[in-house]
């Protein structure tokens, strides 16, 4: 499914500022009474120019998407069912401001809430109060490589279960959540054939993978190509904290094969927001990781802070904009209107080449890096 926007709405920008060269984008109009009431940005419509939309295989999406890992996850993100109304408002805000890509997974949600993220997305689409959604909103979901999914048919069944939770006829991008090459290589072929089968049955418009390293990505690309199925996307952890040799090699492979890199955790699980210190850590399991990594991040955080102040942006907006400038589609997670509004401020402008160089130099000089996802292959 997708959203079509009238021509009059294109080009609206959230938080427009002068660039270093002195060029100006049109300032936003004064907020309407409705915008003030619902705390929405003043103009309803995309916050980026039409030519900034991004191709992902046969699809065209916004230059940034939103991730929904937190929607149903009680352990890491403290989800409660009474939050659903706020999540609906967050989703509506995103749609009204041109976001057309939403990432989820059949494993998102803990315990009895397994699959809750997909259920909520489907519900929010049906209950969206705004323009007719049409055909352009792209739901990208991931299918877990559970050990009991041993045949292509079981993978197709998983896709149909996701469609039922979403209450959609077709998924935008069907993604293999992770590779089993590191621990169950014999299962890998069945999963690849499952992607082929769901594509051939028309259950998905495009296929992608997640947590694949460069070598394994080339293998699945070549296999799918031999079956007549284009691989359109590769979703991995990618941020200023994840600039390892493997991640940069992966980006080069994606560029050479025409695969769009979708960047999850573009804020390093929150470490690049500037909101946390070694004496002020988030609750839950993230605190263990933050305690290891944060002490060595001063050069990068200071650089983010300096650029954000000069740009009159936030550190989060600068970090996400870096991902956009690298040609990826960042999908920061959102669970509140405030987070969505801040993330939307990453759109409609670009870091200069000097600023990108400064950020990357600071990132490389930081002694600590983000721990790579254990599921990512070589």
UniProtKB/TrEMBL annotation:
Residues 16-35 are annotated as: Disordered. Residues 63-362 form the NADP-dependent oxidoreductase domain. It comes from the Eukaryota. The keyword Nucleus does not apply. SUPFAM superfamilies: NAD(P)-linked oxidoreductase. One of its GO terms (cellular component) is cytoplasm. Keywords: NADP, Oxidoreductase. PANTHER family: AFLATOXIN B1 ALDEHYDE REDUCTASE, PYRIDOXAL REDUCTASE, CHLOROPLASTIC. This is (wild Malaysian banana) hypothetical protein. It comes from Musa acuminata subsp. malaccensis (Wild banana).
């Amino acid at each position: 499914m997708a959203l079509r926007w009238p021509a009059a709405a294109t080009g609206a920008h959230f938080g427009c500022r002068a660039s270093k060269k002195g060029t100006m984008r049109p300032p936003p109009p004064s907020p309407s009474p409705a915008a003030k009431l619902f705390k929405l940005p003043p103009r309803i419509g995309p916050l980026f120019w039409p030519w900034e939309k991004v191709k992902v295989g046969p699809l065209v999406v916004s230059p940034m998407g939103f991730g929904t890992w937190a929607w149903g996850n009680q352990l890491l993100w403290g989800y409660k069912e009474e939050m659903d109304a706020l999540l609906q408002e967050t989703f509506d805000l995103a749609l009204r401001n041109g976001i057309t890509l939403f990432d989820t997974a059949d494993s998102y949600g803990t315990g009895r809430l397994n699959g809750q993220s997909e259920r909520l997305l489907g519900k929010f689409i049906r209950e969206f109060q705004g323009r007719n959604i049409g055909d352009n909103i792209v739901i990208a979901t991931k299918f877990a490589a559970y050990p009991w999914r041993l045949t292509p048919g079981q993978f197709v069944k998983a896709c149909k279960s996701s469609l039922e939770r979403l209450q959609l006829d077709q998924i935008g991008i069907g993604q293999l959540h992770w590779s089993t090459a590191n621990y169950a290589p014999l299962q890998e072929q069945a999963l690849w054939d499952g992607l082929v089968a769901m594509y051939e049955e028309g259950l998905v418009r495009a296929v992608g993978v997640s947590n694949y390293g460069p070598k394994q990505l080339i293998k699945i690309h070549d296999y799918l190509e031999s079956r007549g199925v284009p691989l359109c996307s590769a979703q991995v952890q990618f941020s200023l904290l994840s600039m390892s040799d493997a991640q940069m090699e992966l980006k080069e492979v994606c560029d050479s094969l025409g695969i769009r890199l979708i960047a999850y955790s573009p804020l390093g699980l929150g470490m690049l927001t500037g909101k946390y210190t070694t004496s002020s850590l988030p609750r839950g399991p993230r605190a263990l990781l933050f305690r290891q990594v944060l002490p060595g991040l001063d050069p990068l955080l200071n650089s983010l802070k300096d650029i954000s102040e000069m740009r009159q942006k936030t550190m989060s907006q600068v970090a996400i904009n870096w991902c956009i400038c690298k040609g990826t589609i960042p999908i920061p997670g959102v669970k509140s209107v405030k987070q969505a509004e801040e993330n939307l401020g990453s759109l409609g402008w670009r870091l200069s080449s000097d600023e990108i160089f400064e950020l990357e130099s600071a990132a490389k000089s930081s002694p600590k890096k983000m721990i790579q996802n254990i599921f990512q292959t070589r």
